[in-house]
Amino acid sequence: MRYLTAGESHGPQLTAIIEGMPSNIRLTAEHIDTELRRRQQGYGRGRRMEIESDQVRIVGGVRHGKTTGAPIALVVENKDWNHWSQIMGAEPTDEPIKRAVTRPRPGHADLNGGLKYKQTDLRNILERSSARETTIRVACGAAARSLLQLFGIHIGSQVLRIGEVSAKRSALSVEELRQVTEQSPLRTADKDIEEAMMRHIDEVKAAGDSVGGLIEVIAEGVPVGLGSHVQWDRKLDGKIAQAVMSIQAFKGCEFGVGFDAARLRGSKVHDEIMHDSQSGFSRASNRAGGFEGGMTTGEPIVVRAVMKPIPTLYKPISSVDIETKQPFAAQIERSDSCAVPAAAVVMENVIAWELACAFLDKFGGDSYEEIERNYNNYLEQIRNY
C-alpha cells in the first residue's frame, strides 16, 4: 500500500491517491473529516485555522461507503484559494509576480530548496514544504485507521511537554486517553498543568516567538510479529521513526524508555518474558515500547517525538536576501505560535499508515474477508506455539 500527495499551501487543493487498499473496507468522508477537524484544533493555532474548515471529498475508489480495491482519490480544497488564484495560478502570465519571496527564513526549507531547484522566488519552495501538506497525510492516515480498527488496533496520543512546562504521563488505555485528551486544548491528560501550558504559549506569542514540545503516541491491539528482522528496511520501528521524522518541524524520535536507555542498566531496559496456558506469551514490562528486533512484541507501541518551535516568527531573526545578498529580517508568513497539539494528530496518523502497511504485508489480501481469514489463522498459530 502506498500513497502520493500533491498541492501547495495556497493552491486550489491538496490531493492524494492511495493504491493498495483492500476492498470491502468501510470508508466515509465523515470518518476522515473527524481526523481533519482534530488536526485543526489546539491552543496556539494561527489565523489560517479561522479560514480553512478542512473537509475531504472522496473522488475515486469508494462506492456506497466501501472501498472497491481500486485506487482511492482524496481531495481537500483550500478555502483561501480565492485570495491567491492570481498569485499561485498554474497558467503563464506576463504580469509581475506578486508576493515573491527572496528572503529565506531560518529553520525552513526556503534557502536549501531554492538552491537545489534553482528558484529565484522562494515561494515555490515554501508553498510545498509548508505543514499545510500534513492535512492530506492525515486524510490518508484516517483511511488506514479504517482498516486497523476492523482488527482491534486503536491509536491515541498525549502531549507531555509544551516548551518549559512538562505534564505527567498518563497510563490510561488508548480509549480512556482519547476521551480525556479530546477535551483538552493542549491534548494533554494532565489537567493540573493545562493553564500553565496556555500561559506559557501566551507569553511566548506576546514576545513574537514560538514554542515546541514533546508528544507521545500509543497504539494498542497490535499483534506480535509485524515488521521483520531479516533486512534493515523491513524493520517496522525504523519505518515508523522515518515517518515521524518526515513531519515538518520534528527533530527526534524514541520508543519505550528511548534515550533513557543510555543511562540505565540492561536489567532496567529489557522486558522479561512470561507465559501461561490461557494468554500465551507476554511481557512483564514494556520498556522496549512494543518492539524487539524490528518486530512488534504484542505489547502497546509507545513512540515519543520532539517538535521544535515553529521557525516562522513574528519577531523575525536575521537572514540574507538572495537577490541583493544584503542582510534583512526574515520574511514573515502567517503562522502558529504553537502547533504541538495539532502535530500530535498528524503523528498519530502517519504511524497509523505505517502500521496498516505492515499489517497488510503480514496478512495481505485483496479483500477484507481474505485478510480476516489470514489474520485469524495467524492468531491460531500463535496460540498453539
Automatic annotation (TrEMBL):
GO molecular function term, any single one: chorismate synthase activity
Enzyme Commission no: 4.2.3.5
GO CC annotation, single: cytosol
InterPro entries: Chorismate_synth, Chorismate_synth_AroC_sf, Chorismate_synthase_CS
Binding site for NADP(+): R39, R45
Cofactor note: Reduced FMN (FMNH(2)).
Main enzyme class: lyase
Cofactor section: FMNH2
Keyword check for rRNA processing: no
UniProt cross-references to Pfam families, sorted A to Z: Chorismate_synt
Swiss-Prot/TrEMBL GO biological process terms: amino acid biosynthetic process; aromatic amino acid family biosynthetic process; chorismate biosynthetic process
DNA-binding in keyword set: no
UniProt keyword annotations, A-Z: Amino-acid biosynthesis, Aromatic amino acid biosynthesis, FAD, Flavoprotein, FMN, Lyase, NADP
Chain residues that bind FMN: R128, S129, S130, Q248, A249, G293, K308, P309, I310, P311, T312, R334
Protein family per UniProt: Belongs to the chorismate synthase family.
Protein name, per record: Chorismate synthase
Species annotation: Paenibacillus foliorum
Phylogenetic classification of the source organism: Bacteria, Bacillati, Bacillota, Bacilli, Bacillales
